[in-house]
Write a structure and sequence with these properties.
The protein is of the alpha+beta class and 110 residues long. The protein contains 3 helices and 4 strands. Helix content is 37%, strand content 21%.
């Protein structure tokens, strides 16, 4: 069982959930298209990414823009599949894509 921040709070009503999920889909579409301005615009309160697999956190538009620029450079065919939209500021997504052979580090898989 995964405990998400705010999981003890009641879920918002259906209309609010639909609006939030629409923003998440817009964000992911913009991210996959490489439109970082549109991507960051979906987070008007300030961008904040925490990558659990690496333990790295990126706070603010500048750090998140740098992260996304690096990510899109490493995975030009990036695809994101939302697996869970938790309505207390958590999105779990599956990232897929292939790094061009010339860009792969010689350290095995990520």
């Amino acid at each position: 069982m995964i405990a998400f921040p705010g999981a003890d709070r009641p879920l918002p009503d259906g209309e609010l959930r639909r609006r939030r999920e629409k923003v998440v889909r817009e964000h992911m579409r913009a991210e996959m298209a490489g439109d970082l301005d549109a991507c960051l615009a979906t987070m008007p309160g300030g961008a904040d990414y925490a990558i659990k697999a690496t333990g790295r956190e990126h706070h603010g538009d500048e750090q998140v823009r740098e992260l996304l620029t690096d990510l899109l450079g490493a995975f030009p065919d990036l695809r994101l599949v939302p697996e869970l939209v938790h309505h207390h500021a958590v999105v779990v997504a599956q990232l897929t894509g292939q790094q061009p052979a010339a860009d792969r580090p010689d350290r095995g898989t990520m």
